[in-house]
Amino acid sequence: MFKQLSQFSKNFTDELAKGLNDDLSEEQEHYDKNSDLPVEIQAKLRKFDKYEQKYPLLLNAYKVEKSKSEKLLILQKILSENTPVSSLDDFDSLTNFFHNTTLKTDMLNDEIKRLSGQNNHYLAELEELRAQIDAKNRSAGHMDKDGAAPNGNIHHEHSEEVLNEVRAKYERLEVDLEALQQDYSAKNEEHAKALATCEELQGKLEGLKGESDAELHEMKESLSKSEARLNEEQKAHQVVTGELEDLRKMYDERSIEFQRLLDMEQKGFITEDATQLEHSVGSPPEISTAVQGTASKSKKKKKKAKSKNCEKPTFQNNTERSTVWTNESRQLKEALERIREYESKFKVIQTQYSALLGEGTSSTDNAVDLDVIRIKIEQLHDENKDLLKQLRDNKQLLTFKSEELDNNKDILKSVGNELVTAKDKIKDLENGENADADHLKAQLEGLRENNSECIKNYELTLNELKQRISLLEEEKLKVVEECKKLRGSVASKQNDVESLSKNLLRIEEVAATLKKDNSSLSDQLRELSLLKRSESALKMSVGQKEKTIVYLEQQIKDYNAKDEQSTRALREAKREIGSLSSKVGQLAKEAEISANNTKDNKQSLEKFIADNATLTERLEVMSEKYETLKDAKSVSYEQVGTIRRQCDELNVKLKEANKRASYLEEELNEVASTLQERTKEVHGMRRLISESQSAERTQVGKLEQSLKSAYDEKERSENDLTLQLAVSKRNIQELREANERLKSKLQDYHSKEKGYESDITRLDSLRAEVQKTKSESTEVAHALEQALSNVKISLSQSEKKLRGLEVANEKLREQNNDLTVKLERISKNYKQVSNQLAASKERTTARGLSRSNSNLSIPDRASLENLSRRGSYTGEPVRETQTEINDKIAYIKNVLLGFLEHKDQRDMLLPVVSTLLQLDSSDEQRLLISIR
């Protein structure tokens, strides 16, 4: 390991040294090439070389990305032609397509397996038949060899018939086999084709996914690189512009110095030389002074030799001034050479700047294209995210709505079943109670008749007994003698009296039981009062429910109004966004116009720079001519004046050119300031747009929150309704239990009445015994009368209690009917509220979709008739708007679609569909048969 690490470190150091040597060699080459130029310009030229090296790389990357985008478009076209995919974002449709293809292949494989199994079965049958044919042929051959008698011929004919049948079957089976083999081969070919297409599509899909991922990664990398390069180029551009501005300033300073020197030459030195020469020579004409003042060095030496003896001080002054002039002329020449060098360098830099501008424009175009592509990709990603969010929200809403519908359907079905059972039970109870009441009334009438007959008989017997007692009192005196004989009979009668006293005790016990029954009936009456109170509480709860339903309807109306206001606000915001976008477009156009103006100004600047260069060339020519004139000393003063005029004109032109350059620079600055202002305005507009979008988002969030709160309130109201329904169910169950208790009590009363009847029969038997015994005791008669009166009182009390129970039953029936009517009204109101909520949800979520309009464009007449019948049946007015009809049609449509789509819930939804469409049992059976 240590050796490997040392080798790796050596290789790494060698590579670093090579890289450093290459960099140093490149730098030395550049340094050798640009060694004449200053250090700053050399550094900038190195940067330009780097940019020139990077530019082809950027071009290649752009070309590669362009080719990849073209390949992506070709693949997208192939996918759109061969698959149901319309864009690269439709991954779900591609997965569904491949899922369907796999399902088809599985189906084809199953069919192939089935056909191969059938083929094997048919082949086995064929082999069996062949074996049978061979066996029969062998048996027929043996029969022929044996030459068996006439029975053999019969068997031979029979075997021939069997063989013919077997051959026909064999031929049929062969035909079937061929057809099956053809089908099998065709199915195999289709399966192979389908598998090949599936594999190809899977490969293409994987390739597309990989390429798309790689391209996205490369695009991101290239975007980041291009952004970095653009930033570098912008920085370099700024540096170059700063350097150009510095060079321009230097050039302006040098031109000002040059003009100053020229002015000094033309005005100061020439006049001084001319005056001095006039004084020294004393010649009147001005030409000699000019010529003497503008002589060369050799001629000055000759003049010095000639005029040594004339005037020594003037000659010395002239020599000093000539030396000064020569030094200044040298300095001017050096300055001119430097200006020329700077002008040449300026031209080179200007060409490089124009080339960089072209590269910058191309790179900016590429960057703009990349920015546009990136913006489009971001927009597509945002749209994809929004669509995925909308799909998730819609799925959640659909699941929530389906759950709500299922719960509502279950609740409605349970309520309907309970109502139907309650109605059936009430009808049965009414029928049973009516029959029991009729039977009891008949029994009571019979008992009353028997009672009246018994009382009449008892009164007759009493009268007879009184008459007999009077007769016995009259005959008492006669029968005193016979009393001794009758003592034995009296003792027997005493025994009978004891038995009667026992019977009286029994009757007293029965009276005590009747008193207990009376107390129980009073308790039942108290329970009835409690039931009445619970009924009043139920009425209060029903009223509260109706109030809550009215409050919910008002809230739904308020939410609809708020929804309309929010839609209006959204429309206004969209209009504002459109106006702002149009303003942004206008500003962009104005920015383009200003950019064109800047380009024109740049072109005019270049023209002025070219004019300046020509003027500088003319200046150089004129300076050369001026030097030749100085050397020649043969030019006249007029030519000097013309030269001065030309110099003045050139100076004026230079000043004008400088003024134009300054004016153009001012215009450029103004254009740049206007561009900055426009960019600021554009940024302000973008900020306004972003603020408006954020405000819209906040409004949308508020609306969503309000919708969520509405949904929460709806859920709360539904929970309250479910709780109230549960409470009402409990109350109904309690009423049913009370009804059952009353029924049990009625049965107890019936049993007690039967006991009373048995007691009455016993009393009748006792009365018969009393009639037979003809007792003379009046006490027994009084006791019997008291017992009968007690029985009558108890019977009247029991009749009153029965009447009170009948009245209570009738009240309970009326209350039950009222509760059923109120429950029906509540269920109808709940249906209407749920329909309105569903319609509001559909309006908010599916406004842009045309599916609901297409589905709801042709309403059914039967559904409308059913709705109108239902409205007329419930007694509500039939004046309905088109929106209500559409809501009802949508509700019927949703119910029918749920009935057709969900097989598990058909039993649950069948009564709802039958009530909506008013179907009979035969119609329901037909519908179920047609669906199966």
Describe the structure.
- This protein has helices spanning 2-33, 39-82, 91-146, 150-281, 286-293, 297-306, 312-474, 476-632, 637-773, 778-845, 851-855, 861-874, 882-901, 906-917, 921-931.
- By secondary structure, the protein is mainly α.
- Among the domains are: 1-33; 81-218, Helix Hairpins; 850-932, no CATH class.
- α2 (39-82) runs parallel beside α7 (312-474) and α3 packs antiparallel against α4 (150-281).
- The radius of gyration is 63 Å and the shape is elongated.
- Keywords: Coiled coil, Cytoplasm, Membrane.
- InterPro entries: Golgi-autophagy_related, GRIP_dom.
- This is LADA_0H11826g1_1.
- Residues 882-930 form the GRIP domain.
Protein topology:
Layout: H1 2-33, H2 39-82, H3 91-146, H4 150-281, H5 286-293, H6 297-306, H7 312-474, H8 476-632, H9 637-773, H10 778-845, H11 851-855, H12 861-874, H13 882-901, H14 906-917, H15 921-931
InterPro entries: Golgi-autophagy_related, GRIP_dom
Protein name: LADA_0H11826g1_1
GO cellular component, one term: Golgi apparatus
Keyword list:
mainly alpha, 932 residues, 93% helix, Helix Hairpins, 15 helices, elongated
How would you concisely characterize the structure shown here?
The protein is an all-alpha fold. The protein has helices at about 1-35, 40-80, 90-145, 150-280, 285-295, 295-305, 310-475, 475-630, 635-775, 780-845, 850-855, 860-875, 880-900, 905-915, 920-930.
